Amino acid sequence: MPTSWSEWYAPLIGRIFVGGFFLWDGILNTLNFSGAAGALAGANIPQPVYAAIIVILIEVLCGAALIVGWQTRFAALVLAIYSVLAALFHANFNSAAQVSLFLQYFAIVGGLLYISAFGSGSWNFGRSR
What we know:
Strand content: under 5%
Helix content: over 70%
Shape: globular
Structural class: mainly alpha
């Protein structure tokens, strides 16, 4: 049984923050579906309406899975791949702010790969360690 902060609480809080980021973004994209599809169309993504549906499903389902600790490794890996693709499709190096945003995507990818490698920690829903 875990007894330390790093074994008991830190993985749970980290999953809530990372998963909550994607869940929140998925909810916002759902509420503003036309804006989400328009943003994808602006990035020259083919079939932007279908792409928006896929983006929302990935963000909501995998974000929620991270939060509750269900299939954590798989959900984190899916979100890491999604984040790399999002960073590459939205790459615009016209300003320092855009470069910073690009690097922030990869910081998130690093956290997701860490979760994917080490699992959900002690607090999880099912056998997802």
